[in-house]
Design a protein that fits this description.
Structural class: mainly beta
Number of helices: 6
Distance between the termini: 67 Å
Helix content: 10-25%
Number of strands: 51
Largest sheet: 9 strands, mixed
Length: about 725
């Protein structure tokens, strides 16, 4: 039976999924993306920090309407590279000083034209040197890439996945990237944050000019920022009395887990103040979610200031946020929380700014599962809320049903849409069972964004407890760290009536405390996750993906794993995940003609349950650590694979010019002197420095003269 601890399993396999079986180079890794989105119809620059990003050649954004191109890759520099670039910058600054306006006898400025290529090189070298922090706060994003993103005017709104591609390492891990519809304000990106040293913490603090501490904006808008250690960001805006402002935050949703921090994510706090400094509203969590939300009716005309900071004033490059301010539609709850597949019930919703707004269930043909839906009003869309589809018969809870004597009678199997509608409310349901029958009671509430922290009881006709459950961990819910939904499976001891009672553990209640309660015989099933969500493989070699299984309602059969409809050039042999295994491996082989551009692949698992074959797709996921210990499989939208090109050369390489006669003469003199007095460097060291200079030149960071002079100093003529 599959009974091993999932924490131990993920820890044991965390390294395996990144082993370079047939890979040419380490997979590129993204630690943060800033800003993490943009407005429709705009083009803007995005800064990305990570690892193995020296030769990024492409930008991938899921969906349609969003494209990107690489502007600059700023990899980590060694001492020699830093020294050469610093020396080159000094020479260029001398040229700039010589070309600056001079004063003649008549005190009239005489401007001297400056070569734009020189100005551009200075800017690029400064950027490289500024981003080169030898002891960064986190090595996971020491490499920096700047890209330019273009969002089409008709690009669909909402969340995407952004990845970078390197020819040798393939596609990176995905990062959330949002398409918005409001004007955006983006603060200047942070330079790579240095590590803090005990007693010298002030040296690592962000040195922001006083003029940038508070920014004036016009609402509605979206605010993009990064929080540094001890930093507070302030935004001033004007508002009118009676405006129903919705202030939402995306932070933990942008970077769900931080491995080396507690609680394991950026914990933003937002507060709204009036012009006199009086606090109007405050929030540090929205219900059970770390990202805060303020719903506030403006008390009077005037200016207001929104402040955001980390709850304990931490900060780093990956403390990224997107805050939206405006009279946007915002849904606080819906009812019912789901429907039967093929049915379209009327959905009631509560929230802010919803007058005239419409919300509908997923379109016809959508299979069972949990799907996001939004309310729309005058072209504006609300926050997405989850909506569940299932195949079981459904009914709606009927009050009063607080006691067994008033219990609502049901016939199994059934899925009940209900609410814990008030404080101390208890909903009770009665069904007839037979001795030896197995019954499953499962609550879907927290997984559907309901604040309900459920507890369920199964009792017999005499009130004797048969089974009880408070919380049940669902590891397929990779972003959920408070598993508050209840689940139990029990065998009925006798024939007769049985009662299922559901309540909130804190005895809370209200219209938003909705739930979906499944009471049925077991429905053995399984779910699959595959990690990592991308890989690169050498031609005529192979790579391995790990596939994790999550069993439901006692499923314990064998699962056949295979690649479904593989793209041209990729093949895989089926593998079997036996009843005693919790993880299997699918090996994918690439031919010499397989795609060097990342393509999507799909891994499926099939099994026979009660004589019927069921097929489940393995959801792509990333293995992420939270707070030094806990591991989570965070779902991704796509599973990508490509051929790694170990012979890759960046396009449009600059060809170093031949040395001038003077430089050749100097090089020969250096060699002659070295032969007479001994070399300062070995031949291998000299060759290595020559390759380093050539690489910097090819990347457009050295002038012809500087390159030739330094090569001559090494005694190299080419």
């Amino acid at each position: 039976m599959r009974s091993i601890s999932w924490l131990l399993l993920l820890s044991a396999h965390a390294l395996w999924v990144f082993l370079p079986t047939g890979r040419a180079q380490s997979r590129p890794y993204l630690g943060y993306v800033y800003p993490a989105g943009g407005q429709q119809g705009t083009t803007f620059q995005v800064k990305i920090g990570g690892q193995n990003l020296n030769d990024v050649c492409a930008v991938l954004v899921s969906g349609t309407g969003v494209t990107g191109r690489v502007v600059e890759c700023c990899g980590a520099l060694n001492n020699r590279e830093s020294g050469y670039l610093s020396a080159q910058l000094r020479e260029l600054n001398k040229l700039v000083a010589a070309a600056s306006p001079r004063k003649n006898k008549s005190s009239t400025a005489v401007p001297v034209a400056m070569d734009p290529a020189i100005t551009n090189m200075i800017a690029r070298i400064k950027l490289r040197l500024d981003e080169d922090v030898r002891r960064p706060a986190c090595n996971a994003f020491r490499s920096v890439v700047y890209i330019e993103v273009t969002v089409a005017p008709d690009a669909p709104l909402g969340e995407r996945e952004l990845r970078l591609v390197t020819p040798r390492g393939g596609a990176s891990n995905p990062m959330p990237f949002y398409v918005g519809q409001l004007p955006e304000h983006t603060r200047k990106p942070m330079l790579t944050a240095p590590a803090q040293v005990l007693g010298k913490e002030h040296l690592a603090l962000r040195k922001r000019p006083a003029s940038e501490a508070e920014v004036r904006v016009n609402i509605p808008c979206t605010l993009n920022g990064q929080i540094a250690s001890r930093e507070v960001n302030s935004y001033r805006f004007s508002a009118r009395k009676g405006q129903r402002l919705v202030i939402t935050t995306l932070a933990r949703q942008l970077i769900p887990y931080i491995a080396d921090g507690v609680p394991g994510w950026f914990q933003p706090v937002i507060a709204l103040y009036d012009a006199d400094g009086n606090e109007i509203a405050y929030d540090d969590d929205y219900r059970f979610k770390p990202d805060p939300v303020i719903l506030c009716e403006v008390p009077k005309d005037g200016e207001y200031v929104l402040q955001v900071h980390d709850a304990i004033y931490r900060g780093r490059n990956d403390f990224v946020y997107r805050i939206t301010i405006g009279e946007q539609p915002f849904v606080t709850s819906i009812f019912p929380l789901g429907a039967r597949v093929g049915e379209s019930p009327a959905i009631k919703m509560q929230g802010w700014n919803l007058a005239g707004a419409l919300i509908a269930p997923p379109p016809a043909g959508t299979p069972e599962g949990i799907w996001p839906i939004v309310a729309s009003r005058n072209g504006q869309i609300s926050n997405p809320v989850p909506f569940a589809l299932d195949t079981l018969p459904e009914c709606v809870e009927q009050e009063p049903n607080d006691t067994p004597s008033r219990a609502q009678k049901i016939t199994l199997p059934i899925l009940i849409n209900g609410r814990i509608g008030k404080t101390n409310d208890v909903d009770t349901f009665q069904f007839n069972g037979r001795a030896g029958d197995t019954v499953v009671v499962e609550v879907y509430a927290r997984r559907l964004d309901s604040p309900l922290d459920s507890v369920v009881q199964l009792t017999d006709a005499h009130g004797q407890l048969v089974a009880f459950n408070d919380d049940c961990e669902d590891l397929t819910s990779g972003l959920n760290t408070h598993h508050a939904d209840s689940y139990l499976m029990a065998k009925l001891p006798t024939d007769g009536s049985y009662y299922v009672r559901i309540a909130d553990t804190g005895r809370y209640g209200g219209d938003e405390y909705g739930y979906r309660l499944r009471i049925s015989p077991p429905r053995p099933d399984f779910a699959l996750r595959v990690a990592p969500s991308s890989a690169a493989v050498r031609p005529k070699s192979d790579t391995t993906f790990s596939v994790y299984v999550f069993c439901k309602d006692g499923f314990s059969g064998d699962i056949k794993l295979e690649l479904q409809d593989p793209p041209a050039g990729f093949t895989s042999s089926p593998a079997t995940l036996t009843a005693t295994q919790m993880v299997g491996r699918v090996r994918i082989k690439a031919s010499a003609t397989a795609s060097s551009t990342p393509v999507n692949v799909k891994i499926v698992g099939s099994a026979v349950v009660d004589g019927k074959r069921i097929v489940r797709e393995a959801v792509p996921a990333e293995d992420r650590m939270q707070a030094f210990l806990w591991r989570h499989l965070v779902p991704a939208k796509e599973l990508k694979i490509c051929i790694a090109n170990s012979n890759y050369q960046p396009p449009d390489r600059r060809v170093p010019p031949p040395l001038t006669p003077e430089q050749v003469a100097k090089a020969r003199a250096v060699v002659k002197e070295a032969e007479a007095k001994g070399r300062a460097f070995t031949k291998n060291q000299v060759a290595g420095l020559g390759r380093l200079l050539k690489s910097l030149y090819e990347r457009g960071l050295l002038t012809d003269k500087f390159y030739g002079d330094k090569m001559a100093e090494l005694g190299l003529e080419q």
